[in-house]
Every structure is written in C-alpha cells, then in structure tokens.
Amino acid sequence: MTSAVLSNPGLLSKFRGCMIGTLIGDCLGAPFEGDELVSNRILGNYFSNLLNGGSKQIFPYTDDTCMTLSVVNSLIENKKVDAKDLAKKFVAEYFSQPKRGYGKNVVDVFQALKQSNFDDVYLPGKMQFNGSGSYGNGSAMRISPIALFGHNKSDIELKNDAVECSRITHTHPNGYNGAILQCLAVKSALNADSSKEFDPVDFISQLENKMEAFEIEATSPYFESLKKIKDIYLKGQEDITAVEIGKYLGHYVSAHKSVPTAIYSFLRGMKPLSEFECPNPFVRTIYFAISLGGDTDTIASMAGSIAGAYFGVEAIPSELQERCEIIEEVSKLADKLYGASQDVVT
C-alpha cells in the first residue's frame, strides 16, 4: 500500500490527484449511500480487502463523476467557463447514461433545458422549488475542475466562475455558496506545500475569512460551520466520532450539510484514526467521509478532491485506483485540463 509522500508534489501530480480523488470517493462511497450509520467493522473489512488485493470488483461511478467530467471537457474545449456549453454537456451526458443516480429535480432541469433548446440556460434552475432554487450539493460535487483550471485566478474570479457553473442547476444561495466553498478549499489544497507541517486552524481560518466576504445573505451557514470546525481544533476535540460529526455538521444532500463535512473529513485524515489503522492520510480521508453515512458518495468525492489536490496522485494507492471505473480516462483528462490551464493568461 502506498503511503503519503513526504516531498511536495508537482502541480500536474496535484491535478491528477484531485481528479482521481474525486472519482475514488464517488466510486467507493456509492455502495454506502443512504446508510444512516456505517459500521466500522464492515467499512474496515471493505478497505482492507481493497488495499490488500482481496477484492477485484470494479466500482461504477455515479452522476457526481458524470457532471465533473462534463465540466472538465467544457473547460478543455473552451478555455473558460461557458454556461451554455456546460448545460449542453450536462444534458447530453445525462441522456446518454440516465441511470447513474441522478436526482429527480436535476433531471427536470435537464429535460427543460433540452425542450427549450438552451434558450436561457439559467431559467429551469431558477424555477426549481417554487422559484427558490435548489440548495443541494450537486453543484459543489462537480466544481473541483473549476478550482484546478483557475488555480492562478483571484478568489473573486474563482467565485464568479463557480457561481456561473452552479446556477445552471442551483440558484439558491446555499447551493452556489457551497460550490464556492468547495472550490476555494480545493484551490487552497492545490496551492499548499504538503511537505511542510499542516495547520488545520490556519486552513479553516483562511476559508472562514473568504466565506465571510462572499456569503452576504442574511444567514451564513458555511461561515458558521467553518467556525464550528475551527472550534473542534481549538478545543482539542479532534477525536470526535463520525456519528457526532454527522449531527454537528451534517451528512445530507443539502450543500450546507455536506460541503463543510467533506472539508472536515480532509482535515481528519491528517491524523491516525482510532477506528481504522492506516498510515495513508488520503485513505483515512475517504474512510472517514464514508463512515459518516448519509450522502457518502458525494461527501467522499468532495473530500477526495481536496485530499488529492493536497497530496498529489503519488499518495493515492494504486489498489484503490484500479478498483474504479474509467480510471485511465480520468487521469488523461486531468493531464489535458492541466495543459489547458497553462494556456490561460490571467
């Protein structure tokens, strides 16, 4: 089993790590989706079999990966965030593979987009939930390519790109603000030096300050959740259980109840877990994210994208990569996305 690398990986390695981490979290988390509580014994055996070669099963990806790869392909082709092209790619991907676990509400958006011939790509999303828009985590789960492509952009520019990508399906502030936070977390991990000692309080504080500026609505669930995470570390309560974290931060399909949880899972993976002995922090991140139960594939996918962006692909065991569908395609797309990002002048 591959252990965490000690040297700081190069940017291409981090691109690959982020994209492959996204896929692994999705594929490995999907079998547990909807479980209110995941047994440590069952999950420990699951990971042990994967890491020791006892399992040869190839795990399929879900809508999380479908939409993420649509974003990647659009960025590679257009060298920018193009909302109309994104909408067309989302719709084409859905109708080519409708049984990847898409939720009913986003399917309604896709059908409306197709029927309208993409006349106004934001209108169907605006009509969701009696005009209030969706605050699910579907826009946050696909946002990591925006962070990779825009790693040299300012936070304001990245925020605008995240919102533009999100509003096709998620127009509620809690929906697109979740995508903004996830995007900023991936960018921070990507630009961090993993060969130096990691400071979780500093990592969270930086995100907290940015969300305080961006989350301008009357309520600020992301800013408040980041404060909660920081308090865990300031009070020395890092051994809080997965059950307690699920209650404290959430583990649901709503973005404000899953994006902060994914970020915490990344932080939790930095240190050994009492319930699962493993020297690899990337593996610990995915393990903890799945152990939370609830929306396991999406939370693990978002956590995996942050951890992969931080540690690079060398830290991801080949035993896990080989168990995921389309792993080679995702790796190649990561390389193409890296190349496209180098062509952009900011």
Secondary-structure map:
Elements lengths: L10 H19 L10 H12 L11 H16 L4 H14 L7 H12 L7 H4 L17 H6 L5 H12 L6 H19 L8 H15 L6 H14 L7 H7 L10 H10 L12 H11 L4 H16 L6 H4 L5 H16 L4
- What does the radius of gyration come to? 18 Å
Report the β-strand fraction as a percent range: under 5%
Termini separation comes to 39 Å
Q: Using DSSP, what is the number of strands?
A: 0
Inertia-based shape: globular
For the sheet with most strands, the description reads: none
Helix content: 55-70%
Number of helices: 17
- Alpha-beta content class: mainly alpha
Helix-strand pattern? HHHHHHHHHHHHHHHHH
Name the poorly predicted regions. 1-6
Mean pLDDT across all amino acids? 94
Task: Describe what this molecule looks like in 3D.
The protein is mainly alpha-helical. It has 17 helices and no strands. It has helices spanning 11-29, 40-51, 63-78, 83-96, 104-115, 123-126, 144-149, 155-166, 173-191, 200-214, 221-234, 242-248, 259-268, 281-291, 296-311, 318-321, 327-342. It is globular, with a radius of gyration of 18 Å. It starts with 10 loop residues before the first helix and ends with a helix.
Please name the defining characteristics of this protein.
single chain; 346 residues; mainly alpha; 17 helices; globular; disordered N terminus
